[in-house]
Write a structure and sequence with these properties.
Blueprint (H helix, E strand, L loop, with lengths): L2 H9 L9 H10 L2 H19 L35 H37 L1 H16 L2 H11 L4 H10 L3 H12 L5 H8 L4 H9 L4 H24 L11 H9 L7 H28 L4 H5 L1
Helix pairs in contact: 2-13, 3-4, 3-13, 4-5, 4-7, 4-8, 4-10, 4-11, 4-12, 4-13, 5-8, 9-10, 11-12, 11-13, 12-13
Membrane topology: Multi-pass membrane protein
Family: Belongs to the binding-protein-dependent transport system permease family. OppBC subfamily.
Main location: membrane
Length: 301
């Protein structure tokens, strides 16, 4: 910015102080009303999963044999199942279980993808060829079928489900990160770090990965959506969470068989699932627009 432009901007009252990257992204994100709505909905769902059990005397394991398949009432706000379980308590527990699995899998897959993709791009040579070979091989493996078989073997243990979903969920992200990192490995700041004797691992973690941070954050939020849908699909088909534990997927599976006689068994978990996926998608779109200067929101900042 030339001195004449600065003087002109100062005379017109336009602030000339440059915003930091993080502050600029926050400012762009705050201007996106859809993203803010997504944040509010997602925060409400997280609070509901953490504190919702405080507002009921029932747990998701309790059976009320005097209220089998009862519609919503003052005693059971979301009704009961065929076994007398309180649907409200099950929705609270199922949402918490689905969120834990989704967040854990999204973080773990992102860490693995970032280290493998950026590491392969920077080191190059045989390491790069082997890493890409493994990634391409796993991409063509029928991962959903393997996920279903392994999940069925472990009888619905949610901790093993996290490991299985992570093991088959990092390849596509790693491939994209590798492509982005290849354009960074020859930059001046990387060469300067090498000249100063900085180690390979430190260059990857401190200099390459932070420069693709916007993509990683966007992928983290959208990864939560895809993980929730994957876990829900597995549980719906009977390969995910097993009774007596519940998730949104198991509740949808149970409710789908009685949609005409007891619609509340499907309506409440389905509504929560829709709110969860829509809110996280809105947040992800907002972060993407904030990080993209060519977007409508970015152009206004």
């Amino acid at each position: 910015m030339s001195a004449a432009v600065v003087e002109s901007a100062a005379a017109s009252g336009v602030p000339t102080t440059r915003l930091g990257r993080r502050r600029l992204y926050v400012r762009r994100f705050a201007r996106n009303r859809s993203a803010l709505v997504g944040v509010v909905i997602f925060a409400a769902l997280v609070l509901f999963s953490l504190l919702g059990s405080w507002f009921t005397d029932h747990t998701y394991l309790d059976n009320d044999f005097l209220a089998l398949t009862q519609s919503p009432s003052r005693t059971h706000w979301f009704g009961t199942t065929q076994g007398g379980n309180d649907v409200y308590a099950q929705v609270v527990h199922g949402l918490r279980r689905s969120l834990v699995i989704a967040v854990a899998v999204s973080v773990l897959t992102l860490v693995i993808a970032a280290l493998v993709g950026a590491g392969a791009a920077y080191v190059g040579g045989l390491t790069e060829r082997i890493s890409l070979g493994v990634i391409h091989f796993l991409l063509v493996v029928p991962s959903f079928l393997i996920l279903a078989l392994i999940s069925h073997k472990v009888a619905g243990d949610w901790r093993v489900l996290i490991l299985v979903l992570t093991a088959f969920g990092w390849m596509t992200t790693a491939r994209v990160i590798w492509a982005q990192s290849t354009s960074l490995r020859d930059r001046d700041f990387v060469r300067a770090a090498e000249f100063m004797g900085v180690g390979t691992a430190r260059i990857i973690v401190r200099h390459i990965i932070p420069n693709i941070g916007s993509y990683l954050i966007i992928n983290l939020t959208l990864g939560i959506v895809s993980t929730v849908l994957s876990e829900t699909a597995l549980s719906f088909l009977g390969f995910g969470i097993k009774a007596p534990d519940v998730s949104l997927g198991t509740m949808l599976a149970d409710g789908s068989s009685s949609i005409t006689t007891a619609p509340w068994l499907l309506a409440f978990p389905a509504g929560v699932l829709v709110l969860l996926t829509v809110s996280v998608t809105l947040i992800g779109d907002g972060i993407r627009d904030a990080a993209d200067p060519t977007s409508k929101v970015g152009a206004l900042s």
